[in-house]
Amino acid sequence: MELKNLLENQIVLLKDFLPVGVMALGLVVLLMSELTALKTRYPNAFAWIFIVFFSVGPLFVEPLSVLEAKGSFNILLSLSALVFGLQNWSLTDKSRQNSEYYALVGSIFIGAYVLLNTSHFLVAIIGLELMSIPAYLLTCWNTKKSSYEAGLKYFIYGGFSTAVLLYGVSWWYGATGFLELGSIEVLVVALNQSSTPFVLMTAGCIVIGLAYKIAAFPMHFWSPDAYQEAPTPVVGLFAVVPKIAGFVFLEKLTLVLMGTTHWQSVQKIYLLLAVLSLLLGNLAALKQNKAKRMMAYSSIAHTGFMLFPLLHASESNLSYFHFYLVLYAFMNMALFLFLDYYERKFDVSSLVDFKGLGSKSVFMGVLLLILLISLTGLPPTGGFIAKLLIFTGMYEGLVQSGDLIFLFILILAGINTVIALFYYLKIPYFMFMKKEAVVKKINPKSFLVVNFLGFILVFLITVSFFMPTWLMGIINNVNFVQ
Amino acid sequence: MNWLTILIFLPILSALVVGLLPTGAYLKKINIAVAGLQLVVFSWMAIGFSTDVPTSSEYSEASFQFVERANWFELGLGANNSLDVDYFVAVDGISFSLIGLSIVILIIAAVSSLSIQKNIKGYVVLFLLLNGAIIGCFAALDLFLFYLFFEFMLLPMYFLIGIWGGPRREYASIKFFLYTLLGSILILIVLIALYSSSYVPTGVEGVYSHSLNLIDLSKAANYHVEGLLHAEQSGTLLGLTWRHWAFVLVFIGFGIKLPMFPFHTWLPDAHVEAPTPISVILAGILLKVGGYGLIRMGYMLFPSEANDLAWWVALMGVISIIYGGLNALGSNDLKKLIAYSSVGHMGFVLLGLASATSEGVLGATYQMISHGLISPMLFLVSGVLYDRTHNREINNYSGLASKMKLLTVAAVVAFFASLGLPMFSGFVAELLTLLGSFKSGATNGLLPHWMPVVATFGIVISAAYALWTIQRMFFGPFSVKEQSWSDQLYDLTSREKFMLFSLAGLILFLGVFPSFLIDMLDQSVAQLLILMQN
Prior knowledge:
Structural class of chain B: alpha+beta
Largest interface: A-B, 42 and 39 residues
Structural class of chain A: mainly alpha
Shape of chain B: globular
Number of helices of chain A: 22
Distance between the termini of chain B: 37 Å
Distance between the termini of chain A: 23 Å
Order of helices and strands of chain A: HHHHHHHHHHHHHHHHHHHHHH
Oligomer: heterodimer
Number of domains of chain A: 1
Radius of gyration of chain A: 22 Å
Shape of chain A: globular
Strand content of chain B: 5-15%
Strand order of the largest sheet of chain B: 1-2-4-3
Helix content of chain A: over 70%
Helix content of chain B: 55-70%
């Protein structure tokens, strides 16, 4: 295929990307308004501009895509942008929140939107870079030496993984003659003509490249440092936005690969990534004493969990996967909202700092407890249903394929739930069971918006337990894949 | 009226209301009032409870009473699957008597909680939530609902031990939580296998659904031919069929809760560190949830597999009896001694169930009720001493009878009941269990004769530690370790009298008139046995 044709096709495709236009406009508005006196007159102006262009705007120009057809996950991006905007709007000290800050975050959203809605490798790489480059800068945002170190680490890993990904894509092009994940039948025929080691190399490189964005083993090393150093509202985005986008693209890739005759071998790559992410995430989280760092490892463990359904990507397993992904997004949005709250109100950074805070703010403490229970996967929270469905998927894999590997996963995932409980409970343990050692300074400002947002998110998570049908109904209605 | 729903949600709603009220000592009285109100509702139900339910070849809704059923949700899983979950509560004799036991113990524990001083509001809210979860767990007949309540008991318990407990409370509470969660993960795996294998006609021609309804799941016809848990599924793993594995997982899962050797190590820690009222609930009710779960999910759903593995079940029971007894004999902390004695007594539940005879199974269920009254009484006795001196070392006391006459009476009653003396409920339970297991060797051949023989030896051990403890602590010349204690050791207060002697009365009543409880249990046990003997 000629390059010219190729680009023309993409231009046609870009018409679907009207929301990207809105967001790009938002970037311009944000950067231009820095030149005016807007910020001095209205301190919240940037947050509002951000919400209008990155949350409300994309939904407004593409309202139907939310509930039907492809980009059903776009609404999660809009929701995430809304949470981020409101969270920053409620900040009292806005000295570091200039327009560049919002513009960099906005660029992450554009990248995520592009990656979510494309099935073309080159466009996906543009999306990946649009997400990554601002993320490096945002990691350094606190201008400390350790932040620079984390940013550099993130940058090096990012560069390396993009290179690996591109290398894999070039093999893919060699094997199939396509740069797109378009027609599954055509691609499967082409891939079946290649030898297994060749396909393994291709798929391995691409999957490892994507593993960087979803923070799966072995490309996870950047995430604990970046989570620790970046501003907490931004960490909330790191944990949700690139992960959704990366996972959805990985799913599209998996649907092609699982049709090929090489799947038995390629599956092993997924298995290795999933099992090691789960084990490493959970075991490393046990030893952490910083809250955000611990949650970074927990997020790696969740990545492992979400990779399991892709091992046996039947129709029902994909809907379990989507269910988990949506709940994961809710839970992590809420989680970093809470950590941000505690950080700003009580100056909490390590787990020990949570001592005695349960009695200081009972409402938020109980909400955080429910949230952590949900992250562990216990009833009565949505996290339980999500975990139940993943387990069900593994059981179906066992019955349908007869492969005992699924039994092994089932047991491993069960044991890991127990391990996870141990470290998730550390926060409530310090909050409710320990007396506060020294009375720390408490930020007297009101946190009404954050309280309210936290309540809404936790409420949604709990409702997903008592009425899982509302979420599953939306997910099942979506003919997401094509 | 939806009496069971009232019993379950009265405490849960009260917990929400208490959460909004200002803190104060009056909340502890609300706590007692809620449990009292539950007792009133329960008594009303007991009048209408029929002990004469006809048995049939398999379970049906007619085997249960006070049935309430409503659709909860129907979760579509992929194109042709759906998971149907009902709000389905009902009771038979076994669960009804356990609910009765729970309410009695909860009242006692609520009265005992009057001495709690720290963070009263939080305590009462957690207590009420625990209350609702316990009743819900015994009443649920849908596995999803059962599992929800089963898990929901953990969290209040974790905080109740962890905040209001003794010096090593953090360690004890997390150990309790992790052990029990490990057990419930095993149960969860079986739960998934059950509903994925089930294939229940919905009434509409040709439409089937996955169900978690225990009655549906107890019928072999409701499993899909290709499901792993179908009775004729030929696949095996390490020589056992999948149904056998499912029973093993359920057995271990609830065995942790029971607790049986070698998964019992959380119990002494949790008991020693828990405050007295929570020890009372833990010993009186939570251990019974383990036994009850084993009956409901293990024996009701996998009766023939349970019989195939009866030898192992009974072996674990016998080891628990001997091992628990020997550990109790070696314990110097009074609470630890009682905790290990619980391990031993709950071993009889396993032995009785494994025998698959009517005497044995009846004895096992009787033992759950009986031990649910005796061990709380023992914990209250140790609580009385701990309140006075903050010390529970057996060696630090001697000749308490001369100073605390009523406590001595209560302690002697409790220990004698515990060692299985005639006239007390423990005797009936252990006698029935041993009769059943001897009979099993002679009739169905499930258990060898040496097992009941060894278990009988366990009774001798329990007599040894009970009598020895009484002798060391209560008789002989009066002496205590610290001089100052002798002034603090006043006799029972009226509240303590109420708690101890009402329990003693119940224990005596069930020992002298066993037919009262046996009538209630009989039909339900017979129904279970029809499944087990097929």
